[in-house]
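User: Let's play a game. I give you a shape written as tokens, and you guess the letters that built it. Ready? Here's round one.
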């Protein structure tokens, strides 16, 4: 027999080597910090565009948003004695939340509104509703929604919206604004003497007026010019897209009033492509989101007044032509490049925590977000309709994951 008592006991591993982190244990090629930094770089593009068109006022709102979120996070972690997530990119995530929150706000909002939105984002949206990596609803959208309800006049489409003119980019005084006597396009218009900015209406207000049945302004304008009162759907959409809405080129480059980070379609698309290139946002979500939004805009009816001011529903406005001009597709294009649709698609709906896990689930999630965003925009005329649509679909994320989760063989 072998005397085992004489054999030396194996040396135990050092304590550090025996420490097991919390699951999952599959080591990914990217850390949380790297993912959040990439998102910050991508969000820098619409941030730069917003600073160009809203100047110091936009910078003040963004700085206040980031500062309030960071200060609240520090106080909340200390007072609630929550563990710090600095090792897992907690600091970068805090900066990202503050920046994204600021991008959803107009540059003219009061500072109290920004601070309250930052506090709600951290305490309610992130802290009380799950914490880093566990929240159901996007925290920044929670903060934005609360201040929208409490301070509707600050974010209302009915208030005056301001935009720097082309001679005062970045450094102009946004509050030194006046209504331009003539305005066809931002690229050729000049601010009133002594002013550095334009005061305009909300870009999408005329579309909502038509959806609500208050589009009779078209016929009033026709009557004043003494022209025919013929009001076919093509003529109505022609006057809407060419006379009432901003120039499509202005909306693509971001030279329209709106929220700080939700006006420049070019910057948002490039930033979104960067996120998709790194795999942080999947095409299975972005594609259905944009496709569903375009289809909803093309199909959802508008209320159009006839020669006797009788209102009737016009379905399929996106497929209307007028004198061989594609007024319907142009109308759909306005929806796609305006407002918060692209910002919500790339930077909020694609959030890794609050979106579904499965690819098929992301298809359902993205399509629901895009269609709901257009419906809310048209018929409820809610500022930030895409943000609310994303929050509603976030609520369904667990259900979507459950019904799209692949089943193991035998179960």
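Assistant: Ready! My guess for every position:
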């Amino acid at each position: 027999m072998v005397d085992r008592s004489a054999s030396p006991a194996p040396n135990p591993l050092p304590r550090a080597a025996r420490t097991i982190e919390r699951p999952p244990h599959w080591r990914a090629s990217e850390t949380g910090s790297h993912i959040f930094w990439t998102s910050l770089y991508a969000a820098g593009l619409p941030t730069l565009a917003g600073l160009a068109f809203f100047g110091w006022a936009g910078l003040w709102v963004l700085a206040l948003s980031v500062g309030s979120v960071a200060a609240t996070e520090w106080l909340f972690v200390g007072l609630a004695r929550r563990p710090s997530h600095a090792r897992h990119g907690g600091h970068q995530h805090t900066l990202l939340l503050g920046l994204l929150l600021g991008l959803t706000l107009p540059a003219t909002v009061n500072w109290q509104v920004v601070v309250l939105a930052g506090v709600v984002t951290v305490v309610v949206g992130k802290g009380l509703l799950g914490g880093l990596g566990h929240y159901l609803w996007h925290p920044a959208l929670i903060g934005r929604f609360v201040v929208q309800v409490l301070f509707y006049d600050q974010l209302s489409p009915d208030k005056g919206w301001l935009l720097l003119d082309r001679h005062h980019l970045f450094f102009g005084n946004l509050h030194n604004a006046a209504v331009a006597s003539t305005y066809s396009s931002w690229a050729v218009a000049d601010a009133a003497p002594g002013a550095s900015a334009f005061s305009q209406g909300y870009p999408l207000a005329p579309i909502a007026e038509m959806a609500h049945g208050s589009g009779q302004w078209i016929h009033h304008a026709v009557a004043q010019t003494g022209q025919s009162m013929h009001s076919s759907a093509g003529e109505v959409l022609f006057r809407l897209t060419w006379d009432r809405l901003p120039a499509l080129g202005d909306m693509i480059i971001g030279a329209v009033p709106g929220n700080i980070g939700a006006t420049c379609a070019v910057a948002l698309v490039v930033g979104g492509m960067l996120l998709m290139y790194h795999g942080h946002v999947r095409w299975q979500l972005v594609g259905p989101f944009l496709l569903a939004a375009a289809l909803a805009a093309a199909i959802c009816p508008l209320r159009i007044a006839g020669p006797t001011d009788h209102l009737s529903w016009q379905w399929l406005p996106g497929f209307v032509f007028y004198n061989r001009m594609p007024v319907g597709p142009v109308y759909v294009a306005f929806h796609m490049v305006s407002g918060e649709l692209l910002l919500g698609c790339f930077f909020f709906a694609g959030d890794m925590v609050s979106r579904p896990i499965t690819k098929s689930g992301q298809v359902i999630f993205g399509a629901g977000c895009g269609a709901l965003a257009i419906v809310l925009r048209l018929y409820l005329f809610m500022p930030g309709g895409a943000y609310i649509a994303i929050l509603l679909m976030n609520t369904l994320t667990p259900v979507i994951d459950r019904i799209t989760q692949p089943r193991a063989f035998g179960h």
